[in-house]
Inverse folding.
């Protein structure tokens, strides 16, 4: 025995502190007890010294807790595990690790049940048994026997599932006891284990059993069983979707009330297996979507959803996505009606039903909007187009922009005559008020044109006002503050010119302020909108929210001079620059650091120091990169005279077109200059002579810093931050267009996003080269077009008097006289002059297929072997690149442009391409307003093949462009090389039917707008599809593409009639 | 020839220049024949009596004959005036076999509104080129305001606002409106305002609903009127 004891006792056991403590405690129990303990340990040590040590470490505590009699039974149960046929050493180790207190709580009977259960598992697989004991030992006192029995039963069942893999699944299962047995009930274990197998291999056993999904524990037993059964049903058709459902849905539902949670789970139970493929998209956001429904309406909304799930399962997922929008738009009763209408549509056409419930079809949107008080762009755009046209005197086209702001964005291409209006305004309680808000924005946009916003003097090389404002060297806030200052100036000018607008402006502004007043921490966009609203309201009549008061107090006096009739966009720009220099965060003001230094000082202290330039490099060390002060003459007058006013450029600046930089400002101030920003009318203009620095000086420095922080908070309102805009610079404005889906027999609402992209032109090389290449053709075409001029007169025959004789009528009259009949006196003709009032838009297909060479290069011919010695080593001029379809198209455009110069018809050139419905590209080559300048010539040369051909959307945009053109006769000439094609142009990528039908619809829309489309294709198979798309007289297939430059002018003469 | 836009005063102009009772106005229309202008035989009892038409009357009496909206008349009718309006100054009357020389004071004035009528109703060059032309365009805003104030009795501020409305609405010509708002309509609006009708309402009944039947255009013009008038 001593030899056995030597294996486990002193030399090893005393090696650790716990062992020594156990020994001391056992000795304190008395010699008899200690002897008993040692004897059991020795017995165990014969099988496993490690188990003996584990036993000895806890034996004294068990003896103390259970007493001598129960101790013996406890020890026997443990020994039985070790001396079992299988010698379950790991099981015994786990057994002796059960805490004595746990033993006392559960009693030895339950302990014995545990051991027996473990033995049953071990009988199936020894490894499984070990895992069972190890994972359940720490929590054994908390496991009810019934749960334990079910746990074992399911584990053994799993081991028999799926061959050898079953062993691994069962191991993972038993290993998960700690999480699973605490959260799941006996009745759920079967379904859970079943699901674990069903989602293989999408979710491996280790992952499935190892981690219970977040939120699973917070579900009720009923909800969990619904979840498991749903996931099992889904797994039968789509295991990955089931895995997603199981792992993500509980977490997604956590924010919801239990009753709502249950309803949503029931919806998934009904439709899960039927819409398995769409589950991965919807599951993670399902909870958030339901949460977005107003709380009092959630249950009712989910009742509707459940009803739809039962009647039309395919519509449930799109409906879930649309419900928050629907409830935002209309009351519950209207949502019910909308759904009923959807069910009737779905009964007739499933695809149409899906699109309807997804708010993707035009019908769906119209039905919903009919019950809403919101004003939508679709409703008002016709009216506003005319309204803006009347106010500004220029025709405009409208594009959608979200969300509603009092400060609509500036246009990147003002010459395109486009304005951006919000897609919807739902800020006010009544539809009429929302329409008035639309009118407010429209009047602002018209005012920008009427009062010269885009005439602001910015350096020519910056590429326009918007690009100037977004230049990297300017603070982000500059554009936003300019919109505020300019918005105020325009509003003042509008109120002056159109007195009826004044009250409307005040009411809308007050409404906006009331709407935002409840916000605690407004976003930047809201803050600046509220600021403009505060400037436009009657300040005495409304209390500003606390967060707005300091900002309004600073900005209001600064913008006050902009009320004057003489104020211009340049003045707004200066005010914005001065404000941005102060209010932009420090790191963005590095360019203006010198000015900051000054103005900060003014703000903080310098009002007390008449000669503040003495210590400019002093305490304002926060301004980085403080420059060495230039030596300037001392001020000629005290700072009371320093006036940062609006207006007159310094006379010595000589046609200055660049706004003052902070450094220049500093120098001028230091030099004692009187900086009047008002065109020399300062004395008689109220509000002039204000000191921006004075105004800021009234604010404590901390408050100023708070203002900066508030203004520079990241914007969560959905408006892209200026910097993010910058990253996408050059992409231009976005437009959304409906698309015709013949499957649903309806338009898909706002289905395609089209972006206008400016083409960076070459230097005109291509244009000039083409002119040279077609030196013979172009004079001929010109002559042809000159001959059109006489056609501007229409000849009227059969007149009694006129400019000339109609010879046929004269001959008839002579015949009549000879025959003694009364001749008709109507043998004159006259010409009626007809003004040519034509506008033609050339729409160029820039798809990748136009990159194809016109003539396939001939395969290289290798010389015969005997010719090899005659190798010509002279340098060979590289062959010119083969001419591509796009090159010919461009050449045709060049010839056309030259020809059109002869008759002066208005024309525009645009290209289109894109990739996918969210990325239709529309390239701006020449607008109607542009002359054939060098830049335009360069852009024609720079037309290059891009990607796909989503023709319908491009045609709709072209139609929209032509809608703003005042011409009696308007035409679109579409030049393409094949049928419409895009990777998501219809569900079936192999079929072109969707694209053809959509393009057909777009062509009809153009015709309905009074525009005559004409399609020219160089695709020899064009007849096959063009005859479906349009009338035979409205298209032409050019067999020999190289003839296009020669043919296009002829086609133009034939097609484009005045 | 008074070549004018609709409602700009071409109809009033001859009257301004004529001595009372010395003006004979003929409103031309599609069924106007040569006989209607020159004269015709009428059966009176058992005899036929020649009755001079307005043109013949004017030629004989040396009055001003004003053919309003001349392009509405048929082409063969218009040709009648050709010998009267060149160096010959004669009016042949076929049915009587007479040629009447015009009285030295005889003056022929025609008017028409180019553009809004169809192309077919444009005036022939052979006719056009027999007349000196007075163009009647929309007057500049301040002039138009003076006219409105004079004709309707509204004060100058209101007249200026009405003129501004007219100027803005005319932008829509050919983009929704076939014809811009005439000074006449603005005067009507002014007269209604003078009779205490609210300005917006007056513009609605006198301008927007008179100009177009298109509901959208009417609403746009109403919105403009709401912007201009408080």
């Amino acid at each position: 025995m001593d030899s056995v004891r030597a294996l486990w006792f002193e030399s090893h056991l005393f090696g650790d502190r716990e062992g020594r403590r156990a020994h001391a405690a056992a000795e304190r129990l008395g010699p008899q007890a200690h002897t008993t303990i040692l004897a059991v340990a020795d017995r165990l040590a014969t099988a496993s010294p490690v188990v003996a040590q584990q036993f000895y470490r806890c034996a004294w505590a068990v003896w103390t807790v259970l007493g001598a009699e129960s101790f013996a039974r406890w020890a026997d149960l443990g020994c039985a595990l070790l001396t079992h046929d299988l010698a379950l050493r790991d099981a015994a180790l786990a057994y002796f690790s059960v805490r004595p207190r746990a033993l006392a709580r559960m009693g030895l009977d339950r302990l014995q049940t545990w051991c027996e259960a473990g033995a049953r598992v071990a009988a199936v697989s020894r490894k499984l048994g070990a895992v069972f004991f190890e994972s359940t030992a720490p929590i054994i006192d908390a496991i009810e026997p019934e749960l334990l029995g079910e746990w074992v039963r399911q584990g053994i069942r799993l081991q028999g599932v799926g061959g050898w893999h079953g062993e691994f699944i069962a191991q993972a299962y038993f290993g998960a006891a700690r999480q699973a047995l605490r959260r799941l009930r006996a009745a759920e274990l079967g379904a859970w284990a079943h699901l674990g197998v069903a989602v293989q291999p999408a979710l491996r056993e280790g992952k499935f059993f190892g981690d219970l999904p977040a939120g699973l524990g917070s579900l009720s037993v009923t909800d969990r069983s619904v979840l498991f059964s749903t996931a099992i049903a889904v797994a039968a058709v789509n295991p990955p979707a089931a895995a997603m459902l199981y792992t993500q849905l509980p977490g997604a539902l956590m924010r919801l009330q239990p009753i709502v949670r249950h309803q949503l789970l029931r919806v998934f139970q009904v439709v899960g297996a039927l819409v398995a493929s769409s589950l991965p998209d919807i599951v993670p956001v399902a909870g958030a979507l339901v949460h977005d429904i107003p709380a009092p309406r959630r249950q009712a909304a989910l009742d509707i959803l459940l009803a739809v799930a039962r009647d039309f399962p395919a519509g449930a997922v799109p409906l879930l996505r649309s419900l928050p929008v629907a409830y935002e738009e209309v009351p519950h009763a209207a949502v019910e009606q909308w759904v009923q209408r959807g069910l009737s549509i779905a009964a007739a056409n499933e695809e149409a039903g899906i699109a309807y419930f997804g708010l993707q079809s035009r019908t769906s949107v119209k039905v919903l909007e009919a019950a809403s008080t919101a004003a939508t762009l679709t409703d008002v755009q016709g009216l506003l187009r005319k309204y803006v046209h009347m106010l500004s005197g220029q025709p405009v086209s409208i594009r959608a922009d979200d969300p509603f702001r009092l400060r609509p964005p500036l246009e990147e291409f003002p010459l395109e005559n486009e304005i951006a209006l919000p897609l919807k305004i739902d800020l006010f309680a009544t539809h009429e008020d929302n329409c008035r808000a639309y009118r407010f924005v429209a009047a602002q946009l018209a005012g920008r044109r009427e009062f010269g916003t885009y005439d602001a003097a910015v350096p020519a090389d910056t590429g326009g006002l918007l690009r100037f404002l977004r230049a990297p060297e300017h603070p982000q806030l500059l554009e936003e503050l300019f919109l505020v200052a300019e918005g105020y100036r325009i509003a003042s000018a509008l109120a002056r010119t159109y007195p009826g607008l004044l009250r409307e402006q005040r009411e809308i502004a007050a409404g906006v302020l009331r709407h935002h007043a409840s916000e605690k921490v407004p976003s930047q966009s809201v803050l600046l909108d509220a600021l403009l609203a505060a400037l436009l309201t009657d300040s005495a009549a409304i209390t500003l929210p606390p967060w707005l008061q300091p900002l309004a107090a600073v900005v209001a006096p600064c913008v006050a001079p902009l009320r004057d009739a003489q104020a211009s966009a340049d003045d707004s720009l200066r005010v914005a620059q001065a404000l941005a220099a102060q209010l932009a965060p420090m790191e963005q003001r590095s360019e203006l650091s010198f000015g900051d230094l000054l103005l900060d000082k003014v703000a903080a202290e310098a009002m007390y120091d008449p000669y503040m330039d003495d210590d400019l490099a002093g305490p304002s060390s926060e301004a980085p990169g403080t420059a060495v002060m230039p030596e300037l003459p001392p001020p000629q007058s005290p700072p009371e005279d320093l006036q940062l006013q609006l207006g007159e450029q310094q006379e010595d600046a000589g046609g200055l077109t660049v706004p003052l930089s902070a450094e220049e400002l500093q120098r001028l101030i230091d030099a004692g200059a009187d900086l009047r920003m008002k065109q020399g009318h300062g004395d008689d203009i109220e509000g002039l002579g204000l000191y921006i620095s004075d105004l800021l000086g009234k604010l404590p420095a901390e408050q100023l810093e708070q203002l900066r922080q508030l203004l520079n908070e990241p914007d969560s309102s959905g408006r892209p931050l200026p910097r993010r805009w910058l990253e996408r610079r050059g992409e231009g404005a976005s437009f959304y267009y409906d698309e015709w889906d013949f499957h649903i027999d309806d338009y898909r609402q706002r289905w395609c996003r089209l972006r206008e992209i400016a083409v960076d032109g070459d230097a005109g090389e291509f244009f000039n080269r083409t002119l040279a290449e077609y030196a013979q053709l172009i004079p001929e075409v010109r002559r042809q077009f000159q001959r059109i001029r006489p056609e501007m007169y229409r000849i009227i025959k059969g007149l009694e008097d006129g400019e000339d004789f109609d010879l046929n009528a004269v001959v008839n009259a002579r015949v009549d006289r000879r025959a003694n009949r009364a001749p008709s006196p109507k043998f004159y003709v006259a010409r009626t002059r007809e003004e040519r009032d034509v506008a033609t838009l050339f729409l160029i297909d820039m798809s990748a297929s136009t990159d194809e060479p016109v003539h396939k290069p001939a395969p290289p011919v290798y010389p015969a072997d005997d010719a090899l010695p005659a190798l010509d080593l002279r340098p060979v001029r590289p062959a010119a690149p083969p001419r591509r379809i796009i090159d010919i198209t461009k050449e045709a455009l060049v010839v056309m442009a030259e020809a059109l110069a002869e008759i002066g018809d208005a024309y525009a050139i645009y290209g289109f391409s894109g990739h996918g419905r969210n990325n239709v590209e529309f390239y701006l080559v020449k607008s109607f307003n542009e002359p054939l300048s060098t830049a335009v010539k360069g852009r024609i040369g720079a037309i290059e093949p891009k990607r796909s051909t989503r023709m319908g959307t491009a045609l709709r945009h072209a139609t929209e462009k032509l809608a703003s053109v005042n011409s009696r006769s308007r035409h679109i000439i579409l030049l393409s090389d094949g049928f419409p094609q895009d990777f998501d142009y219809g569900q079936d990528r192999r079929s072109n039917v969707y694209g053809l039908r959509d393009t057909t619809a777009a062509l009809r829309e153009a015709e309905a707008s009074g525009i005559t489309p004409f399609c020219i294709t160089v695709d020899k198979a064009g007849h096959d599809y063009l005859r479906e798309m349009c009338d035979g007289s409205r298209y032409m297939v050019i067999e020999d593409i190289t003839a296009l430059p020669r043919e296009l002018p002829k086609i133009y003469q034939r097609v484009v009639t005045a | 020839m008074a070549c004018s836009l609709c409602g700009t005063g071409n109809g009033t102009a001859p009257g301004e220049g004529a001595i009372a009772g010395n003006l004979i106005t003929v409103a031309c229309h599609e069924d106007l024949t040569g006989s209607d202008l020159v004269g015709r035989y009428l059966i009176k009892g058992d005899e036929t009596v020649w009755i001079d038409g307005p043109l013949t009357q004017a030629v004989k009496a040396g009055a001003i004959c004003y053919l309003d909206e001349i392009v509405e008349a048929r082409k063969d009718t218009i040709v009648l005036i050709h010998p009267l309006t060149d160096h010959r100054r004669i009016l042949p009357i076929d049915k009587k076999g007479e040629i009447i020389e015009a009285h030295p004071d005889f003056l022929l004035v025609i008017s028409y509104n180019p553009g809004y009528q169809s192309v077919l109703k444009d005036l022939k060059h052979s006719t056009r080129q027999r007349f000196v032309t007075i163009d009647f365009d929309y007057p500049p805003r301040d002039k138009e305001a003076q006219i409105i104030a004079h004709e309707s009795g509204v004060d100058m501020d209101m007249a200026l606002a009405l003129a501004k409305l007219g100027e803005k609405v005319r932008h829509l010509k050919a983009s929704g409106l076939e014809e811009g708002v005439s000074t006449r309509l603005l005067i009507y609006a002014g007269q209604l305002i003078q009779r205490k009708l609210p300005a917006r309402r007056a513009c609605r009944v006198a301008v927007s609903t008179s100009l177009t039947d298109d509901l959208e255009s009417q609403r746009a013009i109403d919105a403009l009127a709401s912007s201009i008038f408080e």
Remarks:
- Residues 641 and 674 of chain A are 7 Å apart (CA to CA).
- Chain A touches chain B at residues 382-384, 386-387, 389-395, 439, 443, 494, 497-504, 794, 799-803, 830-834, 966, 968 (CB under 8 Å).
